[in-house]
Design brief:
Rossmann fold, single chain, 11 helices, alpha/beta, binds UDP-4-deoxy-4-formamido-beta-L-arabinopyranose, about 40% helix, binds nicotinamide-adenine-dinucleotide, globular
Length: about 350
């Protein structure tokens, strides 16, 4: 019998790639999303790639009784992967209540139902943003968390704490995955980042500039004390990141997790600067990118990248894709998404 997994935020960027990875690894998947930042047509691409029609619920997780219908329909859900959240740092500064309500209330509801319906494993999308303005990298999971730079970041810190406290005296086990900078798209070019809100992250800004959706782009600061003056991040391919979720579930299902809640970094383990990312894009595509250098973006951390040795040792996870793969797949997806190729 296949184990059944509920994926929240499943039509979103990382959720949809994870659904594919789960199906490819023998799991049954149920998807819920309210479509606030994605479209359910993503599941058509999932069907094309995997041959599987994933049951879909168009539900806002802030509605407890509607969310419960999913659990009533699928009494055999054994794992929950909770991606659903609002994720724009800037918007969270403007609308903190919206972010706290959406990200915390949805988490409380799904956590409550997961416990009531005796789910075994709960995986939570956390973020390297919980580490705040770190002074040194690589950061491992024991690095003390600092003040969050935004209400969005705070929802991730609170979310982690809510899970840690709630699961202390329960049978359900949880894993908090702290993602670094997810990027790239599915190698089929049928699936990638397709937000309803304008893209703000570096890689989609690059591809949208190159395709002409944007007239140009700005590098936010080249006066940092880094090797070329621009900020350094750890860019992790979305397919690699997705597989970490499958391994995290399996780790709990196989009874390997001893503590109630464990935490793992998911990154590539080294940093690239903004200018190096642009260079990689230009090398892979043969295009010249129209960019200018502008002032620093407030709130940006100078440099952060992961130590993922815990995920490697415990989950058996490691990245297989590099920055060139990120650029190749992100660009192929941009061409398809913009209707330049089929
Ligand atoms: P995404 O916006 O593509 O996916 C999130 C999905 O959740 C969207 O499809 C949205 O419609 C849905 N959603 C939001 N609120 C909901 C609600 N109340 N009820 C039902 N559905 C709801 O974002 P993503 O990049 O795939 O991120 C997935 C998760 O990973 C999020 O929790 C995000 O905070 C976290 N994360 C993302 C990044 C990143 O850079 N992409 C980095 C670290 C952590
Ligand atoms: C990367 C680098 C920018 C756009 C954010 C969230 C974090 C996490 C991941 C969810 C930075 C530079 C960017 C542009 C630029 N998300 N940049 N010009 O800020 O590392 O992290 O996404 O949890 O919480 O804060 O990612 O892609 O926005 O920026 O120069 O037009 O690219 O300054 O150095 P960031 P990003």
């Amino acid at each position: 019998m296949k184990q059944k997994v509920l994926v929240t935020g499943g039509t979103g960027y990382i959720g949809s790639h994870t659904i594919i990875d789960l199906i490819e690894n023998g799991y049954d998947v149920v998807c819920v999303d309210n479509g606030i930042n994605s479209d359910k047509s993503v599941l058509n691409a999932v069907k094309e790639i995997t041959g599987v029609t994933v049951p879909y619920y168009h539900i806002d997780l802030c509605d407890l009784s509607l969310t419960e219908t999913i659990f009533k329909d699928h009494l055999d859900i054994q794992g929950v992967i909770h991606f659903a959240a609002l994720k724009s740092v800037g918007e969270s500064v403007e609308k903190p209540v919206l972010y706290f309500r959406n990200n915390i209330e949805s988490l409380l509801n799904i956590l409550d139902l997961s416990l009531q319906y005796e789910v075994k494993a709960f995986i939570f999308s956390s973020s390297c943003t919980v580490y705040g303005d770190v002074q040194r990298s690589p950061v491992d999971e024991n690095t003390p968390l600092q003040e969050a730079a935004s209400p969005y970041g705070r929802t991730k810190q609170i979310g982690e704490q809510v899970i840690l406290d709630t699961l202390k005296n329960n049978k359900m086990k949880s894993i908090l995955l702290r993602y670094f900078n997810p990027a790239g798209a599915h190698p089929s070019a049928k699936l990638g980042e397709a937000p309803n809100n304008p893209a703000l992250n570096l890689v989609p800004v690059i591809t949208e500039t190159a395709i002409g959706k944007r007239a140009g782009m700005t590098v936010f600061g080249t006066d940092y004390p880094t090797r070329d003056g621009s900020c350094i991040r750890d860019y992790i391919h979305v397919v690699d990141l997705s597989h970490a979720h499958t391994l995290a579930l399996k780790y709990i299902f196989d009874g390997k997790q001893k503590v109630s809640t464990d935490v793992f970094n998911v990154g590539i383990g080294s940093g690239l600067s903004v200018l190096e990312i642009i260079e990689a894009f230009e090398k892979v595509t043969g295009l010249r990118l129209n960019y200018e250098v502008g002032p620093r973006r407030p709130g940006d951390v100078m440099a952060i990248f992961s130590d993922y040795s815990k995920a490697k040792k415990e989950l058996g996870w490691q990245p297989n894709y590099d920055v060139n793969d990120i650029m190749k797949t992100a660009w192929a997806w941009e061409l398809v998404r913009s209707g330049k190729i089929n």
